[in-house]
C-alpha cells in the first residue's frame, strides 16, 4: 500500500514540501507505516523554473488531479479564496483527506470546509495556517481540549513584529523599517495584508474558534494595523518601560451567570506591553503565542512563524497525521463549535489606553480633561505633562474600562478648545 499525495501550489512553501517528501521518504514511511508518494503538482505555469521539482509531476489541471482515483491526500498551499475553496471541496467530496495552510479561506469560510469534511467523512488539518512551524493549533485542538482556555494572546505576524522591533531598537521610523523588511524578504512588495492587520486577523479568527469552541470569522475580528504607529509612540512606550507589539488577542469574557462566559472578544491592534512580559522579548520576525488556561496555567509557544521550510515542517506534520488516520481507518478531530458564544463588539471589550494630547499650556487644562474621563466613567491611572507653550502635551494612562467608553471620551476631547490635537492613542496590556 502506498498513499499518494496531490500538491496544489509550488511556490516557496510548496517547493519545500516537495523537497522534504523526497529527502525524508524513508523516515516518513516508517512513521506512517506505508510509503508516501507525490502523485502530481498543480501549478499555474509549466514554464516557470523550479529547482529540484520533477517536471513530469507538474500539471495545470488542478481539478483532475484532486479528484483522481489515484490520489489519497490533497495538500493546498496556493492561498486565497478561489480556486482553493472549490478544489478542496471537490477533493473531500471525492473522499480525499485534506491538508491546507490557507488561513484566509479558513477564516472567511471555514464553516463550508468543515461542513464538507463532516458530510464526506474526510480529514482536514491546517496547522500551517497559523504561526508557521510552531505547534500551536494541535495543542489547542487536542492537548487542551479537556481544559478551559481563558485567553490566547500573541504575535502571529512576523513582518509587523520585525518592523516594530526595528523601530524600538534602532530608532527607525515606520517607512524606513518597512523598507528594510522588504529588502530582507520579510515583507511583500505590497505589504497591506501584514501592516494593516488582515493576516493577523485571519489567524486570530482560527485561534479563537479552536480555543473557545465557537465559530469565528475574520469579519468578527476587530482589526487595526501598524501604519499609524509613530516614533513618538515608541518613545512613549519606552518611557513606561513598555514595548509596542501588534497582538492578536482572543479572550473569553466572563459572566457571573455562566461559567462558559457571556461571549468572546477577538481583536488585532497595536499594544503597549511591559518589557517584563514574555511577548515583549520576541524579536525580529519571530512569532510567539501566550495561552492562559484554567488547569494548565500559562503556556507560551515560540518559533519561526513564516518561511518556506518552517511552514513546510507544519504541513509535513499534518500529512503524517492524516496518512496515519487513513492507514488505521480513523479520523482526526472534527470542528467543535458547541459553545456557540457570541462574538462581542469591540465597544464591549475591556481595555486600557495610553492617550497623548497636545494641549493649551494654561491652568485648568488637567481638570477639564479629567472631567471628560469622569463623565464616561473612565478612571485615570496615571497622568503627566510634558513640555511647555506650543510643545505642551498631556499623557494619560487609564485603568481598564469598556473600549466604547474610552473611544467616546477621546471623541469628546477632540472637541475641546484646550486640546489642539489627539497626538496618539494606543491600548495597553498588563496589570493596572
Structure, explained:
By secondary structure, the chain is α/β, with parallel strands linked by helices. Helices cover 36% and strands 25% of the residues. The chain is built from 14 helices and 17 strands. It has helices at residues 12-23, 25-32, 62-66, 84-93, 103-120, 137-143, 158-169, 174-183, 192-195, 198-212, 231-239, 308-328, 365-375, 403-414; strands at residues 3-8, 36-42, 58-59, 73-76, 97-100, 124-125, 149-155, 222-223, 242-253, 263-274, 286-293, 297-304, 350-359, 380-386, 393-398, 401-402, 419-428. The strands form two sheets. Strands 7, 8, 9, 10, 11, 12, 13, 14, 15, 16 and 17 form an eleven-stranded mixed beta sheet that branches. A six-stranded parallel beta sheet has the order 3-2-1-4-5-6, with helices on both faces. Helix 1 packs across helix 12 (308-328) and helix 5 packs parallel to helix 10. Residues 354-427 form the ACT domain. It is an enzyme of class 1 (oxidoreductase). InterPro entries: ACT-like_dom_sf, ACT_dom, Asp/hSer_DH_NAD-bd, HDH, HDH_cat, HDH_CS, NAD(P)-bd_dom_sf. Its EC number is 1.1.1.3. This is Homoserine dehydrogenase.
Amino acid at each position: 500500500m502506498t498513499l499518494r499525495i496531490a500538491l496544489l501550489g509550488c511556490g516557496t512553501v510548496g517547493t519545500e514540501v516537495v523537497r522534504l517528501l523526497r529527502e525524508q521518504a524513508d523516515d516518513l514511511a516508517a512513521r506512517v507505516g506505508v510509503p508516501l508518494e507525490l502523485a502530481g503538482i498543480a501549478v499555474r505555469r509549466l514554464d516557470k523554473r523550479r529547482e529540484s521539482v520533477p517536471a513530469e509531476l507538474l500539471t495545470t489541471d488542478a481539478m483532475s488531479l484532486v479528484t483522481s482515483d489515484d490520489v489519497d491526500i490533497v495538500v493546498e498551499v496556493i492561498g486565497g479564496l478561489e480556486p482553493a475553496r472549490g478544489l478542496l471541496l471537490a477533493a473531500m467530496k471525492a473522499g480525499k483527506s485534506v491538508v491546507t495552510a490557507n488561513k484566509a479561506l479558513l477564516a472567511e469560510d471555514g464553516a463550508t470546509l468543515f461542513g464538507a469534511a463532516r458530510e464526506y467523512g474526510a480529514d482536514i488539518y491546517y496547522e500551517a495556517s497559523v504561526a508557521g512551524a510552531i505547534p500551536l493549533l494541535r495543542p489547542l485542538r487536542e492537548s487542551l481540549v479537556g481544559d478551559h482556555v481563558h485567553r490566547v494572546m500573541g504575535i502571529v505576524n512576523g513582518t509587523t513584529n520585525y518592523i516594530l522591533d526595528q523601530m524600538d531598537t534602532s530608532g527607525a521610523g515606520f517607512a524606513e523599517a518597512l523598507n528594510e523588511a522588504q529588502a530582507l524578504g520579510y515583507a511583500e512588495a505590497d505589504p497591506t495584508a501584514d501592516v494593516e492587520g488582515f493576516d493577523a486577523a485571519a489567524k486570530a479568527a482560527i485561534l479563537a474558534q479552536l480555543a473557545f469552541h465557537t465559530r469565528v470569522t475574520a469579519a468578527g475580528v476587530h482589526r487595526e494595523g501598524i501604519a499609524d504607529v509613530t516614533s513618538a509612540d515608541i518613545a512613549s512606550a519606552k518611557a513606561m518601560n513598555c514595548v509596542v507589539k501588534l497582538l492578536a488577542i482572543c479572550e473569553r469574557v466572563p459572566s457571573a451567570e455562566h461559567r462558559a462566559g457571556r461571549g468572546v472578544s477577538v481583536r488585532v491592534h497595536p499594544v503597549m506591553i511591559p518589557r517584563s512580559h514574555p511577548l515583549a522579548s520576541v524579536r525580529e520576525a519571530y512569532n510567539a503565542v501566550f495561552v492562559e488556561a484554567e488547569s494548565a496555567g500559562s503556556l507560551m509557544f515560540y518559533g519561526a512563524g513564516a518561511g518556506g521550510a518552517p511552514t513546510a515542517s507544519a504541513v509535513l506534520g499534518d500529512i503524517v497525521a492524516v496518512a496515519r488516520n487513513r492507514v488505521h481507518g480513523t479520523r482526526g478531530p472534527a470542528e467543535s463549535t458547541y459553545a456557540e458564544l457570541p462574538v462581542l463588539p469591540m465597544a464591549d471589550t475591556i481595555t486600557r489606553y495610553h492617550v497623548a494630547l497636545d494641549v493649551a499650556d494654561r491652568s485648568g487644562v488637567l481638570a477639564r480633561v479629567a472631567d471628560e474621563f469622569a463623565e464616561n466613567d473612565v478612571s485615570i491611572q496615571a497622568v503627566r505633562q510634558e513640555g511647555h507653550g506650543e510643545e505642551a502635551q498631556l499623557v494619560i494612562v487609564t485603568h481598564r474600562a469598556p473600549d466604547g467608553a474610552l473611544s467616546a471620551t477621546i471623541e469628546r476631547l477632540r472637541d475641546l478648545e484646550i486640546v489642539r490635537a489627539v497626538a496618539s492613542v494606543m491600548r495597553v496590556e498588563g496589570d493596572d
